[in-house]
Amino acid sequence: MADHGADGRPAESVRRALHDAIVPCDTVDPFDPLTDLAAFGTTVGDATVVGLGEPSHGTREVFRLKHRLFRYLVTECGCRTFAIEANVSEAFALDAYVKEGDGTARDRLLDSAVHDVWHCESVLALLEWIRSYNERHPDDQIGVAGFDMQHNETTADHLRSYLETVDPDFFDRIESDLTAVELPAKDEQDVESLQAYGEACDRVATALTDRFDESRQAYVEQTSPEAFERARHQVRVLGQAARQFDALEPGEQSFDHVGIRDEAMAENVARLVGTEDDLVAVWAHNDHVKRGSLASGRYGDMDSMGERLAARDDVDYVPVGISIGSGSVRSYSPDAGRYEVYPVSDLPAGSLPATLTDTGLDVGYLDLTDLSETGPLGEWFARGPARYSITGTAIDGDPVGSVESNPKRDFDGLAFVRKSSPAVGLTDE
């Protein structure tokens, strides 16, 4: 039997199998009842880490659906950690807001140095919901954590404050290097500038690793075990950043630094899993959440964060991807120096978005855990239908791209939203 019809669409047997397998969802509204998400719960099972992916960093409906999925994880699965694709230290202010009501969600987002792709009304609504939940459950609170390691101005600032308290004499010895880390690289497009920044990160990380190890008891006595571990982990993050920047080579097309980032993010996520009963929700791009190669091979044979998490013995990892059908997205334009709206050009018949659109659903969910690899749908998936991979920055003028991969290999669950509209930025004009 032919895999595709003359019009490029998958064979009727594939479309029928997809229609039978996909579960309609009522809405993307995060505050509506969750009774239609039972299939998502089946996917989650006994996971300790659930990756919630997204095809772009700028789709309002996807952010709202992810908020809804996270709410399900909290209320039905006991999840108490929301981990976002942001630097470890950048998320401290968000954690203080949701737990203590420190400031407002808007102020914490805009002032925390969290990447501005998250400066939008959908993420704001999520943080406000977490704060509301914590007010109602003061003894069973949700925390917010970051797991990225690229931008370390806030890391250096927190370490400065900690060292001034516990070890002012040693702080004086490394202050100049710490100041260099507090200042971003002079030119983020210049490899030598980034390498110099990485060298400063390495000097601080090397000096502080030894100092923290030999001074643990004294530091803990002056602060607390929790404060010590928080500061010690930020030293590790600086070491991760140093490795990433050191991998950059002027004039060479190498993606080693990209793989180092995903390796580090996986390490940082795994540290968030404290006991067997913990459940961590990870909010990131499909390209990081998926198993297999990062961005399905776009950066060469680099394992994704999801692949590294799936390979760990101390993590039970479940990745959930999200696909959109068509519409538009918000992405940063380097040329304009601001966020702009970009159309999502239709992928051809036979692509994953086009085939999901043919189901007629506005929102749907597909549990892939028990999907047969030898049935019509599993065999079609194995041929690698194209799906969207949309960047947060409009590289070469257009953020909208695609990759070809097997959804069942990449994910344990796949959600679908037919129509994409741009996320609404908090400061967009």
TrEMBL record:
Keywords: Hydrolase. Its EC number is 3.1.1.-. GO terms for molecular function: hydrolase activity. Pfam families: Erythro_esteras (PF05139). It is an enzyme of class 3 (hydrolase). InterPro entries: Emycin_Estase (IPR007815), Hydrolase/PRTase-associated (IPR052036), UCP036794_erythomycin (IPR014622). The keyword Hydrolase applies. This is Erythromycin esterase family protein. It comes from Salinirubrum litoreum.
